[in-house]
Design a protein that fits this description.
This protein is of the alpha+beta class and 216 residues long. It contains two helices and 13 strands; from the N terminus they run E-E-H-E-E-E-H-E-E-E-E-E-E-E-E.
Length: 216
């Protein structure tokens, strides 16, 4: 595996290769911000961010919401996808066209044509929030890639191997970066180190992560 360039990788249009089928597309989402941010606000107004509990009873440090036909949820009964927001009892908001277009184009740029996500998990990280190493394996079909969009504060992405014990590389992700992984890299363990204290000039002291998946 090629070791990623961890620093000085801020130029839009550059790519960081994380594995045979895994890339970070630097600044890929930047030209789309005028459409993405209002769409995000619209989702939050319908399905506000909330801190869910893990099956073990721990409160997740990142708050979350969803949009799409299916939304990822967690509680004492386990991790799963549901068509219904458990707080409102209503369907999750649909994926905005600006979101869907970005996901399709980023997937295609990374070599995955015809990606049609039906779920978008939206995580909100405040300073100190983190995401432990995990696999995205609640989806029915692992043939589709994961498309992960970073907005706001920079974070350090951990990208490991097929086993939790495998060494993970540390990859800075910045506002507008899009990570895509699938194929042989689809079940890699990944996570986010605790978020730092440097507010973003546009989004302030928060990081928003849009994670597009084919769940159903």
């Amino acid at each position: 595996m090629t070791t990623p360039d961890l620093f000085g990788d801020l130029d839009p249009g550059r790519r960081t290769r994380l594995g045979p089928d895994a890339w970070v597309l630097r600044g890929f989402a930047l030209p789309r911000m005028d459409a993405l941010l209002p769409a995000l606000a619209g989702i939050e107004a319908i399905s506000p961010f909330r801190h869910m509990k893990t099956p073990g009873g721990f409160v997740m440090s990142a708050a979350l919401s969803n949009c799409g036909a299916l939304g990822w949820t967690s509680d004492r009964r386990g991790y799963r996808y549901s068509p219904i927001d458990p707080e409102s009892g209503l369907p999750w908001p649909p994926i905005p066209e600006a979101f869907a277009r970005l996901a399709r184009e980023a997937a295609a740029a990374a070599g995955f044509e015809d990606f049609a996500p039906d779920a978008c998990l939206i995580n909100r990280y405040l300073p100190g929030a983190r995401m432990s190493l995990h696999q995205d394996r609640n989806e029915r079909d692992f043939g589709a890639p994961i498309v992960s969009v970073s907005l706001g504060m920079s974070a350090v992405f951990l990208f490991g191997g097929p086993a939790r014990s495998d060494k993970a590389v540390r990859v800075p992700l910045h506002h507008g970066d899009v990570a895509v992984w699938g194929g042989t890299d689809r079940l890699r363990y990944h996570g986010i180190l605790p978020l730092g204290e440097r507010p973003h000039p546009l989004l302030g002291a928060r990081r928003i992560n849009l994670t597009f998946r084919k769940a159903g």
